């Protein structure tokens, strides 16, 4: 269990922190029990949370030997831009819960490690304060209940040199999170969210109206709204939380330029299909070069390799970098990214793959 008073963040990295799993153990020491349960928890029975981790165990690696790897590198290209490696920071809101420097620390670490950061709508750090000329930053939009409010955030992101727009579409309603309810989870009083209220205001219910279907679902985005946003912005629009191949095809019809295959870390709909399975289904129906990013359960460099082999163009990590943030701020996030990057590079070398383009299904064996 957590100490009754969480320890202050570390100011240097001790030798015992070698893996993401080590950071997970460390992070718990630096957070209150309420915040820890929020971070670790998922929806209902948390089957999807476990599945996201377990799915990687069902896939074995099938390496090739004696290849010439002297030209090896991890660079990838997305939407006409080069990224030094395919390990991106998933959008996670309210990061001040985990460290006083919040998203500013995550952004700094991401910049130093050449990692693309996707800043959440629910950031505690103003998007205008992220380094203007850092080329590796995207903005994540939670639909604001109407088009004008949503577009205002998109235009702000454009002005401040964000390179793409990620619209999260899989949580028009919060999942039922038993773990959070048991610890009476709440955000701190007075926590600043510079771009939106911590909770988007709900429509007033009339007599006889349903709190779910006439509440949050009434202001949730539809395909028409997505098509409209695509028309309004010069940024590539990427949908996060697409799981069904039918939706993948609909997204392409609306002009969406990429997808993040994700079940929201198991936090919204429990027993939702694992994203690694969804990635394989979606890969079969979209054009060969259509960008598919993968999100969910990555804890090792070998997991990154498996996701890339099954069709991912890049991967997002969520909880792992928050473990780093809670443990040691920017230093911890940077170290977690460094660990994953090195593990991935060594996996590539041992697999006989010099570049991301070499990584394919030929290198994996399904149990």
Automatic annotation (TrEMBL):
Amino-acid positions noted as binding glyoxylate in the UniProt annotation, renumbered to this chain: 38, 142, 177, 264, 267
Q: Name all FMN hydroxy acid dehydrogenase domain ranges.
A: 12-367
Q: What is its EC number?
A: 1.1.3.46
InterPro entries, per this entry? Aldolase_TIM, Alpha-hydoxy_acid_DH_FMN, FMN-dep_DH, FMN_HAD
Q: Which PROSITE patterns does the UniProt record give?
A: FMN_HYDROXY_ACID_DH_2 (PS51349)
| Cofactors, names only | FMN
Annotated SUPFAM superfamilies: FMN-linked oxidoreductases
Q: Which residues form the active site?
A: 264
Question: What GO molecular functions are on record for this protein?
Answer: FMN binding; oxidoreductase activity
* Keyword flag Manganese: no
Q: Name one Pfam family in it.
A: FMN_dh
Q: May I have one GO cellular component term? A: cytoplasm
Q: Which Gene3D superfamilies match?
A: Aldolase class I
The UniProt keyword set, sorted, is: Flavoprotein, FMN, Oxidoreductase
| Superkingdom to which the source organism belongs | Bacteria
Question: Does the keyword Cell inner membrane feature in the UniProt annotation?
Answer: no
Q: Which family does it belong to?
A: Belongs to the FMN-dependent alpha-hydroxy acid dehydrogenase family.
Write down what this protein is called: 4-hydroxymandelate oxidase
- What is the source species? Acinetobacter bouvetii
